[in-house]
Amino acid sequence: MPRVGGSSFFPGSDPVCAEAREILGVTLDAERNIVSYDIEKQCHAVFENVRLVLEDAGATWNDIVDVTVFLTNMKKDFAHL
After folding, report:
1. pTM for the complete prediction?
2. Among 9, 56, 57, 60, which residue's Cβ finds the most Cβ atoms within 10 Å?
3. Residue 47 host element (H or E)
């Protein structure tokens, strides 16, 4: 994680599970096109990846100052809210 002065910068994460080498919450067809996805599973996977990076850097959730989230289909993904 890049550090500047007393601050660390984490450029981002995705729902990829490095151990399983797969995108969690995504179903792909034989050509690796997205057939369906589960936004809740993807969010949990991203948060888990962020937690692992924070721990590796000796930080916790309480050390986070700012977060930006990019959503591609909020109406569909969060229709149940």
Report:
1. 0.78
2. 57
3. helix 39-56
